Amino acid sequence: MIALTSSTTPYLLGNFATKIWHSNACAETNRWAADTLGQVVKQRASYSEGEGSSQNWGMNMGEGRSSGSSTNYGGSQSYGRGINSGGGSSTWGSGNSQNDSDNWGRNRGGSTSSNVSHGYSEQVGYLIEPGEFGRMLKTGGPANGNRVSAIWYQAGRRFAASSGNALLAEFQQ
Q: What is the pTM of this model?
């Protein structure tokens, strides 16, 4: 039988490659615990949302008119007598034309849009952040339902409950 004393307990746990951390306010100890547990790839969520609107309207109108008048009529006449006689001719003419045109148009429009985007990025970070050792672990007493929690770490072991070599354990005070 092995007698456990306060001086032999750390060595015994060290031989089993086991460390146990309870709630702690020492920043140096908490960093050491976080470094011991190591870092993992974590997914960090991102979210963005946007909305937009645009409107346009207008009107164009035009009118064009052209008109004119032209009358064409005409004739020709020539006359002459004998050899080496003088002759004459005359022509005349007139005409008319007319046209009209009208045009007009109108335009208007509008659009709206909205979008939502969800995603994540992967970053390397502590399995348990150093500050969490002082925030997440229960210290017992009535405020915690007489429950105490700890992080149990064992090198080379894979806990089924956490799929890793660290486990959040809780027990009755």
A: 0.51
